[in-house]
Amino acid sequence: MEWTFQSAEELTAALRAGEVSSAELTDETIARIERDDKAINAICVRDFDRARVTARAADQARARGDDRPLLGVPVTVKESYDVAGLPTTWGMPPHRDHVPAEDAVQVARLKAEGAVVLGKTNVPLGLQDIQSFNEIYGTTNNPWNSARTSGGSSGGSAAALASGFGALSIGSDLAGSLRTPAHFCGVYAHKPTLGLAPVRGMVAPTAPPLPTEPDLAVVGPMARTARDLQLLLDVMTGPDPLTLGKAYDVRLPPARHERLCDFRVLVLDEHPLLPTGSAVRAGVERVAGALADSGARVERHSALLPDLAEAAVLYTQFLFSGSTAHFPLDSYAELQTRAAALSPDDRSLEAARLRGMVLTHRDWMVIANRREIHRHGWRRLFAEFDAVVCPITPTPAFPHDHAPDPMRRRLDIDGVAHPYFDQLIWAGLATMPGLPATAVPTGRSPEGLPVGVQLIGPMFEDRTPLRLADLLEQTIGGFQPPQLS
């Protein structure tokens, strides 16, 4: 039997039953990587020797009666996580030789639960792109079409999962970096509620791995099934033992419902600032149709929904407010001059990006207050609905575009060019208020590319969108392996 496309849940059952050993699973997965990754370039740092040692140790532990949740399961880790003895570069050439001495807290949790870490997956330069390419490791291709991107910044992890290179992966998400690659590659990902999973050790070189609590950014699980997302989220969840973990434990509430027919869902496929491409709109419709056919309550409009245009502008300002912290003073002054010349009536996303780059602390406090108003609006909405279904980006995976100035790149949406970074606004809908969001595959576009949607849930009720994802997987299907050449 071929094991490499089986879920972590299925692999664990087979390991428990003695149908396969971790050593066999690891060798088979390594063989697939060595055969297929030349075309994909997902695994940028290989750790096969240590993986084989770990797998043999897992088999010995199981023989002694050990049964940890991930014992013997092959996994990968996004390059941006510190793994002791392996380089962490974030794709930045000056740091190609940076090798941390200790594991990130999430890598340590994977290992503590018995996972076999095969290696690290590719990322964009500084994690700051919707594609995954850099001078150190090259370009990660989409397993469905090598001329297309796998997404970013967790694009290597998504491509690895779609190619059978491990059952699970861990990534991060600030601007859709979990959800967009999942959507582009046809796999699952979950952006947890802000603060649910600690990020220590997921840090740019050569910054110290401190237990910080970043604004907007989260770490989260990626998998080929919704149930595997829940399995891995349970491992990742819980405060950092150096800080809040001294006083708090986490107990997530159960999913609001166990049957599809009981869910109350708001479906969105239009945004006031950006059109939704036909392929993605069809994916949203497929989910909406499955929900309606099951007897779920499906609505298309709600007066309780926070203003989408303002949400996009606020998110864009937050996102870009940290991008210029280390700019030279003369470059920063030039941005200030350009921002001051903007018309007060210019509410475009381009203007929001520029204003965000030069936010004063006073400005930041003003938009932070607006964010709290939006958060309260979401609390009111989720008193009436259990989840929101909407796009992740307006298109399936786009062709590789390595133009050096991303501000000048354009995204083709059904034949019309739009600013490249405008596509982030759907991902920002959940990111700005810190809500959980699960990316689920919905099928393929007419060009044969995967199409996904996101299920946004109430804050700290991550099990609700995850359960909805599981029920939809049972109804409309889920991951399908690409035909790798």
TrEMBL record:
Residues 24-464 form the Amidase domain. SUPFAM superfamilies: Amidase signature (AS) enzymes (SSF75304). One of its GO terms (cellular component) is endomembrane system. PROSITE patterns: AMIDASES (PS00571). PANTHER family: FATTY-ACID AMIDE HYDROLASE, FATTY-ACID AMIDE HYDROLASE 2. This is Amidase. The gene is amiE.
